[in-house]
Amino acid sequence: MPVGTLANVKTVTPTQLKDCQAEMVLANTYHLHLQPGEDVVAEAGGLHKFMNWDGPILTDSGGFQVFSLSEIRSISEEGVKFRSPREGNMINLTPEKSIQIQNQLGADVIMAFDECAPYPATYEAVKLAGQRTTRWLERCIKAHDRQDVQALFGIIQGGVYLDLRQQSARELIQFDLPGYAIGGVSVGEPPELIEKIVKAITPLLPNNKPRYLMGVGTYKEMAQAVASGIDLFDCVIPTRLARHSVALVKGDRWNLKNQKFKRDYEKLDQDCPCYACQNFSRAYLSHLVRSQEILGYTLLSIHNITELIRFTQQMRQAIIENRFVEQFGHYLTSENFTSK
Questions:
Q1: Catalytic hit among 231, 234, 252, 271
Q2: Percent of the chain having pLDDT more than 90?
């Protein structure tokens, strides 16, 4: 899922997203609450009409942003109080308020409000955050007024402690939700710990419901997660790299500002079907990003999004044809996946 934080995937239009074969996008509850406000979106007819995207949309709960972006905050059983970085006023974000905002935004999938413990954090602190996440989920379910049209996913927490992750998963499964997410990864912990968590926890989740790994989008992390049973990902990598003049090409990262691209008149990637690769040279793209032209960031975003989506499409096809390990085994830790 390309990330459309403020109801837009940065520098890319909805039509261009469809050309990239994006099927679902993510928007951000925290940021949309601050600007323009969920009431404005609701008056416009909901997120789909507001941003002119007729495909599925997922909104996060705002929990991760509150814990990661707000310097002034206080956490209690009620919820989280924090100072708005825009207006300076104090905002009280509770599980009920998060669901109310998401009900108004009108996304197809909404996320339960959770407490995302930082890394590193003590065992006791992570345990308390996980227990609170479960209690908050109960309140989210009770507050959810649009269960017929919006699927509520729960978020498994537990930090890097496998027993706490397992406890969180067991508790959340009891609620029989439409889908489940593994949250609280990619918050600073080493990649090998992410792999360990995903490998241990994903098989505990119902395999007939979507399983979503939040905030992950590198080739290796996605391949390892898919091997464990993950279905959905979101990540800012493709557009963020594009804004830093970086193209993803067959798993490598190319900085188009490098001197070697200045007179390189080959297509960015001869095998890529995206608009950027089919129409422009590396030299032209290098010229655009060196000149800080917005078109350069748009073209690189189109390519990077297409590249990651093609990677997931290739994994899907490899699963269908029973050759996943053969094609993607080099991304996997041998002792974990050779038997699959």
A1: 234
A2: 87
Query: For residue 322, is it within any domain?
Result: no
List 19, 60, 231, 271, catalytic entry: 60
For residue 60, indicate whether it is catalytic: yes
Do 22 and 159 belong together in one domain? yes
Mean pLDDT on 271-275? 98
**Side-chain-side CA neighbours of residue 201 (13 Å):** 36
pLDDT of residue 336: 46
pLDDT of residue 288 exceeding 50, the answer is yes
Res 68: pLDDT: 74
2 in a structural domain: no
pLDDT of residue 118: 87
Q: Which residue has the higher pLDDT, 303 or 87?
A: 303
CA distances from 51 to 7, 42, 47, 222, 240 (A): 6, 12, 6, 28, 20
**Least confidently predicted of 97-106, 315-324, 325-334:** 325-334
**Do residues 117 and 159 touch, judged by C-beta distance below 8 A?**
yes
Residues 264, 223: one domain? Answer: no
DSSP 3-state of 215: coil
48 & 67 share domain: yes
What is the SS3 assignment for 79?
coil
Q: Render 103-147 in DSSP notation, one character per residue.
A: HHHT-SEEE-------SS--HHHHHHHHHHHHHHHHHHHHH---T
Do 279 and 200 belong together in one domain?
Answer: no
Number of domains observed in the structure of the chain? 2
In whole angstroms, what is the distance from residue 181 CA to residue 110 CA? 11
pLDDT of residue 337: 44
Task: State yes or no: is 163 an active-site residue.
Answer: no
Instruction: Give the pair of three-digit tokens for residue 221.
Output: 């992390």
Q: What is the CATH number of the domain that holds 100?
A: 3.20.20.105
